[in-house]
Amino acid sequence: MFFLAIRHLVSRKKQTVLTLLGIVFGSMAFVAISGFMLGFQYFLLDQLINNDAHIRVSAREDRIDQSVAMRDLYGQSSAALVAWVTELSGTRSNPKIENPRGWAEILGHDPRVEAYSPQFSSQVLFSLGAISANGRLIGSEPDMQVKVTNIENYVLTGKFTDIATGGNRLLVGTGLLKKLGSTDGSTIFVSNGRNRATPFKIIGTFETGNRQLDDSTAFAALIDVQRLSGQQDEINNIAVRLWDFNRARDVAHDWQAVSVDKVESWDEINAAFLNVFQIQDATRYLMIAVILLVAGFGIYNILNVVVSQKKKEIAILRSIGYEQGDILKLFFLQGIILGVVGSALGLALGYLACLALELVRFGGGPMGGGTFMKVSFDPMIYVRAFLFGSLSSAFASLMPARAAGKLTPIDIIRSGAE
Q1: Crossing angle for the helix pair 324-357 and 2-11, to the nearest 10 degrees
Q2: CA-based nearest residue to 139, from 269, 50, 228, 241
């Protein structure tokens, strides 16, 4: 049966090649588009996961309204005696982690935690002469911070750990350095708006490729930022790295249940990014479905024509003893062969297309910088492409095969088939 199916396919080379091309291009498109889109997603996920904490514990920003003010200032029993002329709103100043020692105890003994870094971050004003720029100053223990993020990999000049050697040292983003018109080794002034500006010496620069971060962020020793903010021995953030980032959401929920502080996992913080990925996946599958649907219709039409052209052979096969099921298998097998061969060729061409895409240079984009295009070679892409191509071909060939199987010699003779 297999060799007879091959003989049928070879006997009509032009139709076979046209049918194969539809499957080949469909499978190739699936591999190339999936490789490109997933490569981009993996790149962004790597940036999100490895350049920041898996879980971030931050101080809760308590909103102040009339009920809160009444309770704190006068007590609940005096509520009826106070009438507010202006409605109260706002948050408490200087939010902080309420129990940093308790968190150190939890994080130090949780086997799911790989490393953690207490931080004090503050919105500040960087200035050099008449030039000033708003930004964020992150204070941390350098030895602990490098275990939580990949910041050390993005340092261009100096060493990240040098911010702890001596007082008031900064590692600044290259974008911020350009904004200030400053240079490595110079001194700039930093102010949080409540105290006098404090001089800090720039001892190094970093560039992550994330323009928002590079243009506005500087790192300093934790004690220096606490002193600048006037909040000695206090922290307002804890960055946590887990052994398995996939468990970040569950771990964050566990900790949130026992803490008044705000605990968020990396996927909760970047929910908007992940929603975009879901839309991309839906678009990708829709495009591939359309391509394979068109290819399937092509197979269906060509096999229908073949069945019409092969009526004489079908009549001969039925006359020498081939059953209805045998004829169905013969044409269905042709569809399977076309699907398998076309999908295999599509995978090979898709792989070559992905290799070519990897050589395309691009710049800018959400993460900034300039680099080569990121392409994924996940084996599951090729498995899915092969299955989709083969199954769509099998499904498209089923109806013509059934039509061929129902033909009888008498019907063929009556129809006047040549």
Answers
A1: 70
A2: 228
Q: How far is CA 216 from the centre of its chain?
A: 24
Task: Find all residues with CB under 8 Å of 7, minimum gap 6, and list them.
Answer: none
- Residue 308 vs residue 173, higher pLDDT: 173
pLDDT tens digit sequence for 186-211: 889 998 877 788 899 999 998 887 77
The CA distance from 203 to 217, in Å, is 14
82-140 pLDDT, tens per residue? Answer: 777 777 666 666 678 888 888 888 888 889 999 999 988 888 999 988 888 899 999 88
In tens, the pLDDT along 148-167 reads: 888 888 888 888 888 887 78
